[in-house]
Amino acid sequence: MKKRFWLKVGMILFPLLVVMGFPVGVLTLSGELSPVSLVVLLNNGSSQFLYGPAYSNPVFSYKMEEVAAQRPEIMALGSSRVMQFRRESFREPRQFYNAGGAVGRLDQYTAFMLQVRKKPAIIVIGIDQYEFNENFVKNAIRYDDYALHLTSDRRAGLGTIAGSWQTVYRDYRMGKFRLADLRNSITHIGLTACVRGEGFRADGSYDYGASLSADVHSRLDDAFSRIENRRWRFETGDMVSVGGLVEMQRFLEYCNRENIHVVGFLPPYAHAIYAKMMATGNYRYLEELGSRLRPMFEAYKFTFADYTDLAILGIDDIAVIDGFHGDERAYRAIIQKLAKADSQLSLYVQKIQ
After folding, report:
1. Which of 18, 78, 111, 249 has minimal Cβ neighbours within 10 Å of its Cβ?
2. What pLDDT score was predicted for residue 9?
């Protein structure tokens, strides 16, 4: 009777195993199912290391665990708009870690730092302009459980499989990856890293691989469309959000209490995008924002700079990833300018001859 029972169970489960075997194999071999703690252990600082999952996004917990493991003396903190800072810009590269992507909202800066046990001496923060626009903020995604996202890898292995197995089949049929690509998983963890060479480097910066168009105008098309439609971080606005200023003040006060020196900047928009925004007359909050933030930083003897227009850096729009992300050339210029303005930061930055 027992043998017959298990035979029936096997007959029921066999089709499921056949169907699920391929996607589970792909997810496993590519490193998609690797827990964040394992990924951090595999990061040996090599230039070959790349972490780019395609079917989940554990960036909050990943960046927190990397900060805990690397214990940086100087750290970049912000959204994807600080991910272009590289360790090669610093005299002692191992002292730097880029926690870009770990925060996306103003209230998350302080929440992130509250979880960091070994505080850095200096934080370079990118401050997204649209976070001070109430028309953006009211529709933006909020994370009530942000602290939980930081302290635990909330992806359940079975959940990842259940949520992506059909997509794996679809992507394979569409030729988005080949089984041969999985051979890269020794140093490249995650399918995006394996296939496109895109993901987080050992220093936390982001490598966009070969995904960027060589045509600058095509990189800006999406941002022009967003301006036209007044959406997705390009909502119009006249006034600087008081709530945003309160959150920034809270963060600066916290850093001052913890003896953390802060160097803040407004990240660049491509010049053509900035010029278009200004020409509409619908983004008046941008004109006021820098003058509202500067005295807040200066009150603590922190440094602040406004690079909203890429042209301020003396760089043209060829040095952009898209309409509101400068590339590594732009961010090398930014770190050099910030170091010239801030004596504490200058002690860490490698001067360009």
Report:
1. 18
2. 43
